[in-house]
Design a protein that fits this description.
heterodimer, A: 116 residues, mainly beta, 7-stranded mixed β-sheet, 4-stranded antiparallel β-sheet, 54% strand, B: 110 residues, globular
Chain lengths: 116, 110
Amino acid sequence: EVQLVESGGGLVKPGGSLRLSCAASGFAFTYYVMNWVRQAPGKGLEWVSSISTTSSYIYYADSVKGRFTISRNNAKKSLYLQMNNLRAEDTAVYYCARSDSGDYFWGQGTMVTVSS
Amino acid sequence: QTVVTQEPSFSVSPGGTVTLTCGLNSDSVSADYYPSWYQQTPGQAPRTLIYSTNTRSSGVPDRFSGSILGNKAALTITGAQAHDESDYYCLLYMGNGIWVFGGGTKLTVL
């Protein structure tokens, strides 16, 4: 069974940092582009970042560029999102998703709350 | 700034057909944008319905279909059912590795 399980969410103060993880199982992780997508409370989906299979290509939404860093460890079948200098507007559920030309398989998400 | 547009809300009668659209403020949507569609019910993770304009994701019933209509991507639901009541999001590829979601359409079945 294909599974993506996010972890690492929680409450953090503005300006703080948090590292999200996503553990993959049930598929050949190495062969898939991986992504982070977030959803603020009561709002729509926002694509955050993507990383290619060998980490050669990495992309970010303008809203997080320079503050967030995506990475992966294919040997551990894991995806990460290092989030620095967090702002209130980063409060959201963060979804890990594997993709194949837009065919996304989604995890269940982890909540990040940025508040003092 | 690129804005992906969707109808904020739509309603359909049970058994009816509805077409949701996905446009761009600055261009016509074509297959080159790899339009995809996702369904989300409250408190749940999204689910992929359609990708690459008109390819159904695994397990998606053929009541759901994707196309390009005029200058927009479209998601058509035929034989609407009560459990189709959800939020629907489109996603477009902007090039250079960047993807942008539309604001979503809240579909009511009544």
